[in-house]
Amino acid sequence: MLSSLFNAAAVGKAAKVLALQRQRASNPPILRFFAHWGGIGLVPLAILDSSPIPTFGSLDILTAFLSARHSDLWLYYASMATLGSMIGSFLTYKLGQKTGFAWIEKKFGARRSHQVEYALERWGSGAIFVSTVSPPPCPTSMFLLAAGAFGYRMRKFFLAVFLGRAIRYGLLTIIAAHYGRRIVRYMRHPGQYLWLSLGVTLLIIAATGAFLMLRKPASLPDERLPDVS
Q: How would you classify residue 114: left for phi > 0, otherwise alpha for psi between -120 and 50, otherwise beta?
């Protein structure tokens, strides 16, 4: 009987190890790298996430995972993700300021670049806010680069980025802390919940658009730095 119990325990342990190995294999390498650092790892990961370098949703996944695992620290994780995003947004803004819109158009294509240009001309900081609060696959880095290329005022730029990221990661960590592994499962397999993601994105855009419609749309020249030439 003891041998049967030992065998059952060994089988159960082997199954857990195999499940853990499968789980680790399904995670992007960049996620496994920063996960070892805990909340501190969110800062450099968020810097990369706000750059043109693709992170495949790793920041959202890690933020949700940490908040689900340590629900009492959700505010800390939200703050770390927001802080890293602010730093990364500043660097991306400077990159766009240095390279100009022609480089953005060459890298991302004329059609997408002009769509971003139109959104910025029409809605100003509201377009930046929507891009930072919306979940993937919203091309956030394009808006950050374009803001730098167009010379947006730094104060308005940072305010829009801060509000968008603080709302996004605040809500994400609260939901993850409450629902635990279910939200992590959603973050790891967003394709299975594509319509839900699109619905959330459209709801955010609609709410922001309704707010912006109540005031005069911000034109691009109002947001730019004054011409000192």
A: alpha
3-state DSSP assignment of residue 152: strand
Q: Please tell me the distance from the alpha carbon of residue 78 to that of residue 170, in angstroms, as a whole number.
A: 5
Annotated domain spans of the chain: 30-223
- For the stretch 121-154, pLDDT in tens is 888 888 999 899 887 778 899 999 999 999 899 9
Q: Please enumerate in sequence order all residues whose Cβ is within 8 A of that of 31, keeping only pairs 6 or more positions apart, or say none.
A: 58, 61, 62
For the chain, which ranges sit under pLDDT 50?
Answer: 1-26, 193, 216-222, 225-229
The structure's pTM equals 0.72
Query: 102-118 burial by CB neighbour count: b if 16+ within 10 A, else e?
Result: eebbeebeeeebeebbe
| Residue 201 to residue 180: CA distance in whole angstroms | 22
- Structure-token pair, residue 101: 């819109």
Q: What angle do CA 119, 53, 132 make, to 5 degrees?
A: 35
* Token pair recorded at residue 162: 């801060």
**β-pair partners for 152:** 224
- Residues 6+ positions from 139 with CB-CB distance below 8 Å: 108, 112, 116, 131
Distance from C-alpha of 40 to C-alpha of 3, rounded to nearest angstrom = 45
Q: How far apart are CA 143 and CA 111, in angstroms?
A: 14
The neighbour count for residue 137, using CB atoms within 10 Å, is 11
Tokens of 185: 């499962």
